[in-house]
Amino acid sequence: MKTSRKLLYFASFVGLAATAAVAIDRVGAPTIAPLLLAAVVAAALAGAPGLIHGRAWPVAFVLLPLGAYLLLRAQLPIPPHVHGVGQQAGFYLEHLQAGARTYARDEFPLDFAAGTDVRILLSLVVYAAMGLAAFIGLSLRKALPAIAIVLVVLGFGFTTDDAARLVWAPLAFLLLAGCMLVLSRSLRRERWRATDALAGAATATIAALLALSLLGATSVAASKPLRDWRTWELAGADSARLGFEWMQNYPSLLDPTTNARVMRVRSPVASYWRANALAGFDGTTWFSGASSSQDLAPESTSGSFVYPVPLSYPEPPGKLVTESFEVVSTYTDHLFTGGSPRSLFLAHQVSLQLTDAHALVTELPLGPALDYSITAVIPQVKPADLVARGRDYPADILGQYATLPFPARSDLAGPSPESAWRLAMSDSRSDREWLGLYQLNQAIVGTTTDPYRITLEVEKYLRSRYAYSLEPPLSGYLSPYAAFLFQTDTGYCQHFAGAMAVLLRFNGVPARVAVGFSSGKQTKDGAFIVSRNDAHAWVEAYFPGVGWVQFDPTPGRTIPGAGASSASAGFVDLSAGAAGASGSSGAAGAPADAKLGPRGARPNRDADRAGAGTEAPAPSGTGAWLPLSVALALALIAWPVGRAVRRRRGLRRGSCAGRLRASLALVYSDLKDYGVDVPRSQTLDETARFLSGYLDLDAGALVDRVQAVLFGGRAATQEDLADLAAFRRDLKRRMRARHGRMRAVLALYGLPAVATAKL
Question: What's the pLDDT tens digit per position in 278-297?
Answer without folding.
Answer: 998 988 888 886 566 789 99
